[in-house]
Amino acid sequence: MSIRMFQKIERLILFGMIIGLPFMNLPKSFSIPYLGGNISKWFLVIGVAILIWEYIIFPFKIPSLAKKYFVIFTGWQILCLIIGLIEYEFPHYLRINELPSLYSILEKWQSLRAIPDIVAVKFWLFLRYTKEILVVNCQHLIIAFFIWHLYNDNYTKAFEDFRKAGAILVGLLGFYSIFELSWLKFGSRWGEAVLREINPHLYEIGHYNGWWPPILWNNGLRSLMEEPSLFGIVSVFLMPFLWTYIKSNKGENIGSWIVNNGYWLLFIGYFMVMLFATNSRTAVIIFICELILLTVGTIIAKTRNQFIRTMCVFVLATSAFCINLVNFQRTSGGESASSKVLTKQYINRTVTSVSEKGKYSNNARLANLIAHLNTLREYPFMGTGTGLIDLYLDRNIPSFAYSNHEVRNWSRYLHMEGIFKSNFPALNKYMSVATQNGLVGFLLFLYPYFYIIHIIWELRKKIEIDDPLLTFFISGVALTLAGLSNSAYFSCIGYIFGGLFCLTEYYK
Predict the structure, then answer these.
(1) What is the domain extent for residue 40?
(2) Mean pLDDT throughout 114-141?
(3) Is 225 a member of any domain?
(4) What is the pLDDT of residue 328?
């Protein structure tokens, strides 16, 4: 097989990785042994296998800095895990009967029965969490290298493939959302029936704490995802790529411009309606930040095309916001509300409520953050070790938080189901990394950010503010901000890292 054929296959795999993003937890009947139910991860594993095959036939150069960083980053995590297992403060929770696979192995091989149960369990956990370090914690690095290898000599091709795959994914999300919007906005029974029929085939209903995700989410759009906030994260990741489909009217009259851009204006506008319909505070706030960054980028770029695009984006965003308010046509008293009241209600619910302690999940999020900070204070240098954090968090939950039913459920299910089946949610990616791997591990985690910023600064006189750079930057900031409220889809930052590595390689 030729190098060109390898590249074609790898491009198809990239499309599969992006289009498969919504399907991160398929029901067990659709899952693949040892790979789970994450379609995007399936394609990534295939992609890694193809890379290895290509390397055997056509050895390619791997940057020495990348190799050194990967070894140091993974090595530190494994070291933290080893120390964490040795010094684990809750050995009585490491019950071998809660690990059926390990128990059956020991029963089958009687010679291994001489090994103390606690030693066997810790060794099993070492293997389990080392796999998590390599497969989950380093997933964004693997994605970044995959993209760099594929596009290091043509960053514009990476940009084009990203936005094509993103447009296809948005089309799928948009089609399924027709049924959900018909139910959410108009109470459609046929829309509800479609959701009830299809949703159980998209994810495992109620697999976490006995209720999440529910078969229907009655206060926000989630499309193909498990909850609205997850859809919101993917939306802000893809949105800047969609904007680039809007072109200027240079040399065209207004009619021709509308004809040439009409489809994309409707497509992007509809996607914005979907984003606002999530009622996700994370999504809406990050989207506002994206609009601000787009404005700043437009001022710096000073190009006609960018100015027209930005004006269109703001018009579409305003229109989408107003259209979405159809969901709130009545006040709590049941009387028709004015547009001013509707706008205020929506903003209070999705934006200003973030700073109000008792609103929505704010108390639970604050308690989760404090528990992480308290645990980090106990283990500042090396953390608790990957996967070993939950009982430490449970011990460090502030007393005020136990009045919150969400926090009580975290603790109750952890003790009821055991640490191998239940866990505290990782609501802040950065605190989760720091608490499990210490401040040293946290700095190592941030190194790619520092490296990219450094390289771009060094090349600032050469780099132009073009579509790829501005898009990668806005999308990357969005994903970085999303990590403050949710760890899901953080691996998508790998696509941005990979694209920016290719871009800086070009300007070098």
Answers:
(1) 1-60
(2) 92
(3) no
(4) 45
